[in-house]
Every structure is written in structure tokens, then in C-alpha cells.
Amino acid sequence: MNSYKALGHLFTFVTIAIWSTAFVGNKVLLAYLTPIEIMIFRFALAYVVMLIIYPKFTPFKSIKDELFFFLLGLLGVFIYFLLENFALKYTQATNVGLFMGAIPILTAFASYYINKDERITKNLIIGFIIAFIGIAMILLEGREFKIRFIGDMLAFLGAITFALYSAILKRAPKDLNSIVITRKSFFYGLILMLLYYLIDGNSLNFQALKNPVVYGNIIYLGLFSSGLAYILYQQGVKRIGAISASNYIYLVPLLTAITGVIVLNEQITTTMLIAGALILMGLYIAQKR
Hints:
Layout lengths: L2 H27 L5 H19 L9 H28 L2 H8 L2 H12 L7 H18 L5 H25 L8 H23 L11 H29 L1 H5 L4 H14 L5 H18 L2
């Protein structure tokens, strides 16, 4: 393997590692901030980072284009992260990471129905059934069932929402820089977050930002998870290709679980290990051509 591709693999691994540990960072912040406050602080910083990375603005083209970016912001930024953050209030970061690991299969089905660019193969159906058995095992596990079930269901709905976002993202205008597309979706996502907060009637807890744990995690989520990781992933895809880069998503449940155990003292049960193995096996079979 030459150094060019080796760097691509390194960039992609670092990206996935950052994204996997972001669940734990969110979980830590929930002790100090509400889910919507975390989202506002995180994406405000991420939006500024995107402006610094690519300060160019594109002129208004059409209402149809803006509605498309609004839909991306609604699904991939506002609803997805709202579901994820509320899920983390009720269940372990490890559980959320396991559900996120199922996104590629869900995206394949969403892309088939929305874009007609994905074939529903025998492997995809078998992989989906195996992965869904793993998901059901997590949902039905008996520990603190009522409270945790709410969080697990929210995480599963979050995975479905992000799959829809990923499928719709394929329809993005080809002539636009990918950073501009991301930045526009962040912008509309932020508008929706602020509207939600205004309707809720509370004021932002800026006092909490004085706490090193809080501002440290906000910087990590905004600057690294939504900023640096995005750049690294772009470089990874450029060097090793989209398929090889996307395969690294298999590591998300494992890395999230390890971080959750070390940072949050989360418990890994036998059921979770079996369920995680089923989800990963399902993903492998579904993507095998």
C-alpha cells in the first residue's frame, strides 16, 4: 500500500473514531445542558468552522434548491440530532452507537425507494433480517426496560431519519461544493433549533459554558466532530474511495462501546455483544456483492 492510500485509511479511521466518541461527549453534556442547548452550541460552532474552511457564498438560485437544503437541515441536523440527544438521556451511548451502525442497511432501502439507484438483492434482505434481529434484542433487553426502551426507540428512529437524509443527499446539486451543501443544511438546522428553543420559552444556559467539561466537549463536538472530521473524511474518500471509506462504519459500535465503558462506566451485557455481532454480520452480508 502506498503512502497516499495509507493516509486515506488513517484519515478515515480518525474520522470514524471521532464520530464514535461523539456519542459519549453528548452523554456527558446532558448532565449540564438540555439536548437542544447542546445542539445549538455545537452547530453554531460547527457553522463558524465551515465558514472559515470555505468562506465563499453561493447566490440564490431557486426556491426549490432552498427547500432541498431546508429538508437536509430538517432531517440530517435538526430531527436526527434531537432524537439522538434525547435517546442519550434514557439509554447508554453504547446502545445508540449500535443503532447507528445499522444506518448503511437502512440507507440502502431508503435509496431504493427514493432514488431508485439501489437494487434490493437477496443479500440485502438477508443482511437486514439478521441486523434487525440484533436491533430487536437490544430493544427487548430487560434492564430498566421502560426507561431504556424509550431511549433505544429514539435511537432507532434517529438511524431511520439519518438514512432518509443520506438517500436525499444524493440528489444534491452536482455543481455545488460539498462544504457549501453541508453549511447550508447546518444553517437551516440551526434556524429550526432556535425556533424550537423560542417556543419552549427558556433561555440558553451560557453560564454552563464556563465549566471546562462543558466547553471542552462543545469544542470537541463542534470543532472536531462536525468540522475537522468532515475534512478528514473528504480526504479519506478522495484517497481510498467512497466504498472503502464507508466500510469503516463497522467500527462505530465497537469504538462507542469501548469509549462508553472507559468514560461512562457503561455495562456491556452478553445480549449486547450478541446483538452487536448480529448487526455487524447483517451489515457485512448486506454490502457483500
